What does this fold into?
Amino acid sequence: GAVVSQHPSRVICKSGTSVKIECRSLDFQATTMFWYRQFPKQSLMLMATSNEGSKATYEQGVEKDKFLINHASLTLSTLTVTSAHPEDSSFYICSAGERSRAGGYTFGSGTRLTVV
Amino acid sequence: GNSVTQMEGPVTLSEEAFLTINCTYTATGYPSLFWYVQYPGEGLQLLLKATKADDKGSNKGFEATYRKETTSFHLEKGSVQVSDSAVYFCALSDRGGSEKLVFGKGTKLTVNP
It folds into this structure.
């Protein structure tokens, strides 16, 4: 079945530094990738949608300059949290979809970001 | 806009008990409906899905039927196991599953031996 690899699974960084999270589709071409943020004991909040080769579409309230998304190829999307602060600590999850597949998305295993 | 409402947890059951987690939705058009499961510390896994009215999704003993008349997609399992302990999310997408998902808030299930 479809597999999405997300790295790193956990990262701890100092306040003010930037962190890059990668999301790769291993056996299919991800025409669309989604980035979610999950707060403790809450649901997933969609941050942005990225389509290969075009700029990401951010949801209302998400700072595009803080959360940089790049979808340079059909198998790779990256989320960079710039100038991270403790309030950015969260669980970030990517998911990948392919327009030729009907129904369902494949999710990465998530990245636990802790900013100290 | 589209939205999903699912019963709030946590839900605690004994092994072999019957499980129902309610989910209702509001959507324009004809969404696809999904249940995802999240085990502790992990990402989401698709549990089952239904893409049109009256479809029944099933997997690992879990079932859910797409009820357009009641705009519901309740998750059921006849006999839960300890290994079913996880958070369950109901979700919808508005165009065949290739568009963004709208999630419910999740229901945490704990199954005790």
About this structure: Chain B has a mean pLDDT of 91.
